[in-house]
Write a structure and sequence with these properties.
Structural class: alpha+beta
Radius of gyration: 32 Å
Low-confidence stretches: none
Number of helices: 14
Largest sheet: 4 strands, antiparallel
CATH topology of the largest domain: hpI Integrase, Chain A
Number of domains: 3
Helix content: 40-55%
Oligomer: single chain
Shape: elongated
Strand order of the largest sheet: 1-2-3-4
CATH superfamily of the largest domain: Intergrase catalytic core
Length: 374
């Protein structure tokens, strides 16, 4: 490539190519020069063969000068959007410190569903791409809840990139409709089923039995149980302090006598030590597969296809609330014990509280039957 030659336009130069030809002559490339923040900037405009001319290059230079004068961002000074893979490294490092067990879930979602974005920049990921992710997730037999969780996760990555000044574009998740899963748990255990499940769990894993006991008797979520430390146990008042719940609002749970006796045995020597630990001594990251295996062994899910009626670990918390409702406790009390911030979530148990609805239906039936006799 030949050296630059100044054209008749200020700050516009042309270079002749040693290899490219255009109309029987060496092709020419136009460059412009201008100063930005005290530095001389060289910018390539384009080739004669691409339709550029010295006049067009001069017009581009004029636009750059006007942008600098009015404090506007220059195209060649714009921040480059990060590569998705690099952004994920930063996000998962943040999640490991700030999301407790959430980092493990996020990493699984990334590795299973999002590796196809690894070499793309964030500004190259469109709402259409996310619609494809959603469709593929559902077509592969995964639940709407999983698809929704995946989309929310992607949105969180974009939000963090913007918060950390690594990305200045729109969040594509805003233009994607998330699935609305109908996955409220309807099934709860009766007393005999609960006793049978706990009995079988104890034979295989005493620790898993004790974890299930806390969920069933105290209504704690799995993550809340795994995060329990010695300092969270108040045996004098039979209280469990839940310091880091899902909704970020600490609350108190109440020990039953059976739970208190079990926790007295399991009480760790250090206040900061977890009550329940994995075999290697680390905090537990998820419910053991043994739970599902025992549920299958005792036949609690036999013949059931609807996920809302299948017994999973969360069924124990749902059972705790259902038993309270059947015992006549108010929705307000149940909400406080579950740690719900609004009663709207707890209203699902309202059909179990009191017998007035049942009495009304039975009274209607009695009137109908009496009318047939007359």
């Amino acid at each position: 490539m030949a050296s630059r030659t100044l054209t008749r336009y200020i700050g516009v130069y042309m270079r002749e190519s040693d290899t490219r030809m255009f109309r029987g002559k060496p092709d020419g490339c136009f460059d412009i020069a201008y100063k930005y923040q005290g530095k001389l900037i060289w910018e390539k405009v384009g080739w004669l063969s691409e339709g550029y001319s010295a006049r067009m290059a001069s017009d581009v230079r004029g636009e750059r000068i006007r942008s600098i004068r009015h404090g506007l961002e220059l195209p060649n000074q714009k921040q480059k959007s990060p590569i998705f893979k690099d952004m994920m490294v930063k996000y998962l490092q943040w999640a490991a410190v700030n999301k407790k067990n959430g980092k493990f879930t996020d990493e699984c979602l990334y590795r299973k569903h999002l590796r196809g974005f690894d070499d793309r920049r964030l500004d190259e990921i469109s709402p259409f791409d996310l619609e494809e992710i959603k469709t593929n997730t559902l077509n592969n037999g995964l639940s709407p809840a999983t698809a929704r969780h995946l989309l929310v996760f992607i949105g969180s990555v974009f939000n963090k990139a913007a918060m950390w000044d690594l990305y200045k574009g729109d969040n594509p998740i805003k233009r994607v409709k998330k699935p609305n899963p109908q996955n409220q748990r309807e099934r709860f255990l009766n007393y005999e089923e609960a006793r049978l499940l706990l009995s079988e769990l104890k034979k295989v894993s005493p620790q898993l039995h004790d974890i299930a006991l806390v969920a069933l008797h105290c209504g704690l979520r799995a993550g809340e149980i795994f995060n329990l430390k010695g300092q969270d146990l108040d045996f004098d008042n039979q209280l469990i302090h839940i310091a880091d719940p899902k909704n970020k609002y600490p609350r108190k749970a109440y020990m039953t006598e059976e739970v208190k006796a079990m926790l007295l045995i399991r009480r760790p020597t250090s206040p900061c030590e977890c009550v329940f630990k994995a075999r290697n001594g680390d905090p537990i990251k998820g419910v053991s597969r043994t739970f599902a295996r025992i549920v299958g062994k005792v036949g609690l899910n036999n013949g059931i296809d609807d996920p809302r009626y299948k017994v999973v670990f969360h069924t124990l918390r749902h059972t705790f609330a259902s038993w309270l409702a059947l015992n006549g406790e108010t929705i307000q009390t149940i909400a406080e014990l579950l740690g719900h911030r609004t009663l709207a979530i707890t209203q699902r148990y309202s059909h179990l509280t009191g017998d007035h609805k049942k009495r009304a239906v039975l009274a209607m039936e009695k009137l109908f039957n009496n009318s047939l006799k007359n």
